[in-house]
Amino acid sequence: MRERVSGSRYIHPALVEHTSTLAGALRNLGRQRATVYLAVVLYNASPELIGEKLHMQPHRVRISFSMAASMLRHPTITQRLQHLAYETDAFDAGTLVDDEMRTLIREWHLEEMFEPLCAACALPMPVPVINTLRPRSGRPRRYCSNACRQKAYQARRRR
What we know:
Elements: H1 16-29, H2 31-43, H3 47-54, H4 58-72, H5 75-87, H6 93-96, H7 99-107, H8 110-114, H9 146-158
Helix pairs in contact: 1-2, 1-5, 1-7, 2-4, 3-4
């Protein structure tokens, strides 16, 4: 347990240098592998969707993701990133996506490619943080809210 400072925050060093190291490691993977890795981790994109967007076969997407994950686990990279994993008590996507990562995401247009949109209002849907080792069960969401789901249902009934 860490020592508490006055207020509600715990003491921990700035994570900026670690996350820029992560962005640098992703850049070193190559654009295609890093895009596949980020699409799975950040946007929970299926191999079929990634293959469609990147013009790859789904089995090649799976191979590319495993190779990217394996390369990120290499000792030279993990030694530089080990402080990031141990300094955050619980996984928080906000600590990993800083200015350097946002720049990388914007530069490669990942949001435009993989961000899921609501089928009724076409607004971006919130993406839940997932466990990459176990895929989410069930169908992916099509609507951002119950109101949009109801609007789509009523539109289908009118036809």
